[in-house]
């Protein structure tokens, strides 16, 4: 995937990205503003060794001893011998274990300093606990742990060099940090979901998806018509509607492809049933006739014919009957409406559709109608299930394959194109159908004449 492909993935999944971002940002905000602020105060101690000899060697030994002792003294800071005294002096009701969770000790590397830190929802109480713990720790070490006797002082001396200041800002929760993490995490989650959806998505949703599967051009982009079931012939019932404009754009694109007159006969098919190929064929025939062209629409789907039902005409006799010689063209081809739209319904469903469509009678029929009409459009069955579209594409200029956005599977489209190519059929291009509407009166990707 190139950068443009990633951008298209993010654009298609913008709602998921926004929702995940807002959810994590809201969660971070809710967690942050429901936490009790905690303040931290720090008291600093200095550890030294008393020595009667001020020689360099004695001072060096004393400093080394003090650095070694600091590590042990830090471990004592939250011990029972210290915290029980702190609880008693400050009249704290919490247990020693709970108090130990709020007290910590550390030492800058290579120094004889000890930092005693205490946290509390009350900033003044945090400073008081820190100072008291430091004083008790110093007393315990010098009087009990390092004291030689009551008459002689302890070898170690511990002094408070920096009493705790009352903190003016809490250390937790960190409001802006949490909100930024929620925002970034939400965006990352949304983008990850979008990319995984794209990897796992097997359906063709946009014209860009088509270009990743085939080099064939997308020559038509038809918007989704929510009333297609009740009003399929929108190019006739409402020719000025934005829903009709993409059919005229398709007509224009086909005309550019037909500059030498060789492409005035096309087959319209799809990968699977239900992609809207018959509706597109019907509306294309109408807009072709609107432009003054004598247009014939043949229902070449001899398995599940649909043209007669779309136009509301009698379809009991038609193409299948014509091919076996039981009727003539004049008896079965019907003019429809005030325009030059002519319809050849499928007729009775035969037991051998493929054989009829590849027969000499079919070739002769097409030769005659190609000469009699400006445009001939054949509505063929889905290419994935039968070979009829491939057969018909060889008898015409080629096939237009309809792809239903969000419905046609990528694998089905690839297999359908391959099935046509395997018997030397020809595909002219792709028509994207049912593209979701964006904005007012326009459709994604639609073009005007």
TrEMBL record:
Domain of life: Bacteria
Gene Ontology cellular-component annotations: plasma membrane
Residue intervals of the AAA domain: 268-392
Transmembrane segments: 175-196
Residues in Polysaccharide chain length determinant N-terminal domain copies: 3-90
Location relative to the cell: Cell inner membrane
Keywords (A to Z) from UniProt: ATP-binding, Cell inner membrane, Cell membrane, Kinase, Membrane, Nucleotide-binding, Transferase, Transmembrane, Transmembrane helix, Tyrosine-protein kinase
Enzyme Commission (EC) number: 2.7.10.2
NCBIfam families listed in its UniProt record: eps_fam
Family according to the record: Belongs to the CpsC/CapA family. Belongs to the etk/wzc family.
Annotated protein name in UniProt: non-specific protein-tyrosine kinase
Organism: Ancrocorticia populi
């Amino acid at each position: 995937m190139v950068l443009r492909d990633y951008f298209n993935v993010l654009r298609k999944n913008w709602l998921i990205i926004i929702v995940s971002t807002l959810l994590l940002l809201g969660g971070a905000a809710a967690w942050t503003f429901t936490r009790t602020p905690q303040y931290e105060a720090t008291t600093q101690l200095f550890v030294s060794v008393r020595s009667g000899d001020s020689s360099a060697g004695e001072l060096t030994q004393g400093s080394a001893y003090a650095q070694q002792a600091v590590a042990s003294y830090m471990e004592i800071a939250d011990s029972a011998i210290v915290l029980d005294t702190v609880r008693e002096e400050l009249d704290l009701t919490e247990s020693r274990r709970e108090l130990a969770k709020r007290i910590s000790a550390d030492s800058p590397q290579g120094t004889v300093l000890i930092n005693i830190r205490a946290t509390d929802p009350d900033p003044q109480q945090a400073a008081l606990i820190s100072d008291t713990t430091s004083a008790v720790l110093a007393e315990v070490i010098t009087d009990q742990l390092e004291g030689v006797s009551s008459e002689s002082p302890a070898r170690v001396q511990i002094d408070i060099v920096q009493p705790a200041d009352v903190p003016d800002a809490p250390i937790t929760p960190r409001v802006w940090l949490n909100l930024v993490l929620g925002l970034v995490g939400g965006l990352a989650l949304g983008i990850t979901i979008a990319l995984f959806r794209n990897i796992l998505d097997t359906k063709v949703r946009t014209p860009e998806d088509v270009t990743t599967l085939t080099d064939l051009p997308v020559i038509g982009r038809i918007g989704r018509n929510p009333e297609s079931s009740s009003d399929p012939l929108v190019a006739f019932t409402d020719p000025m509607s934005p829903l009709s404009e993409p059919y005229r754009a398709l007509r224009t694109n086909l005309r550019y492809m037909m500059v030498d007159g060789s492409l005035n006969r096309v087959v319209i098919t799809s990968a699977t049933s239900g992609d809207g190929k018959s509706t597109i064929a019907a509306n294309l025939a109408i807009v072709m006739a609107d432009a003054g062209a004598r247009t014939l629409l043949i229902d070449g789907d001899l398995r599940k014919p649909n043209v007669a039902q779309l136009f509301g005409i009698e379809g009991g006799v038609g193409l299948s009957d014509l091919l076996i010689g039981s009727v003539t063209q004049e008896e079965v081809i019907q003019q429809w409406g005030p325009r030059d739209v002519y319809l050849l319904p499928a007729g009775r469903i035969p037991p051998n559709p493929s054989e009829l469509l590849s027969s000499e009678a079919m070739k002769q029929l097409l030769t005659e109608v190609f000469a009699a009409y400006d445009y001939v459009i054949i509505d063929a069955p889905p290419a994935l299930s039968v070979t009829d579209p491939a057969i018909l594409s060889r008898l015409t200029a080629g096939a237009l394959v309809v792809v239903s956005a969000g419905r046609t599977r990528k694998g089905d489209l690839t297999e359908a194109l391959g099935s046509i190519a395997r018997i030397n059929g020809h595909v002219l291009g792709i028509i994207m159908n049912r593209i979701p509407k964006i904005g007012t009166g326009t459709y994604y990707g639609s073009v005007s004449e």
